[in-house]
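Open question from group meeting: does this chain pack into something compact, or does most of it stay loose? Before anyone orders reagents, we agreed to write out a predicted structure and look at it together. Recording both the input and the output here so the notebook holds the full record.
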Amino acid sequence: MYKETCARELSTKHPMLYETLKKLTRDPFFLFVIVGMVIFSFYYGLEDKYKASVNLSSEARVQLTKEYEAITGLKATPEVITQLEKDYVTDEILFRDAINTGMHFVDPATRSSLIEKMRFRISAPISEPTDTELVNYYAKNMHRYYTQTSLSFEHAFFINTPKNADTLASKLQSGEILNADNFIHGNQFSDISEGMLRGIFGDDFLTALMSVESRQWEGPFSSNHGLHYVRLQGKKPPQPIPFSTARNIIAKDLMQIKIDKAVELKVQALVMQYDINIKP
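Structure tokens returned:
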């Protein structure tokens, strides 16, 4: 009755407005918009009232106390326990805020840590290689287990380019003793590997030394430190590493292969959830 009275009054006093509203209420799109606005307002009203919970179970609370007492050797007082609980809640809130703000996307250290933990989680169930697996892998991949070329030589070192640098090699060859500089690693090297040579002297020196075939003084060769006149005393080609010596390396290599395969299978299962775009 009241509704009909309001409608008659509106049609009498505001006929144009009445006709407009009458048409709108019959329009399905208008009704759809009104219903959508109501649902939208209801949803955000609920969201504003919702609060995520931070729960500290009694088991976790006991564990916090035990860890404190184990680390400090002290009995946890009620005040300490209260502080432990507060610290737990603080850490949990900060952690969640870090996730909500996307820190794991923009902070390289956080990103790397999470990725590493995921790899560890995937690899945790993987068993260590058996002796049979190690022997079989070694037999199939013996080419991977060789020593590097090693060299023995002596050298005369100069921090700065000396006078008559081009003639010093021949003077050394004739037995003349030069007033050279002291080299921090010494003047005599015996059976030193390519890797160690590269680390000490640099790539240029290693390349030059590897090309030397004679047992005479040659140079100067430049390094990361200065100039060197070198007399090669021996060059030992790569040698196979016995299984007993290489066992730990083989175990590490084979374990890494297992981990890589497990990670690859996991990623294959997840990759369909993403649209991968690699720009050229």
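Observations to bring back to the group:
The chain has a mean pLDDT of 84.
Residues 102-135+243-272 form one domain.
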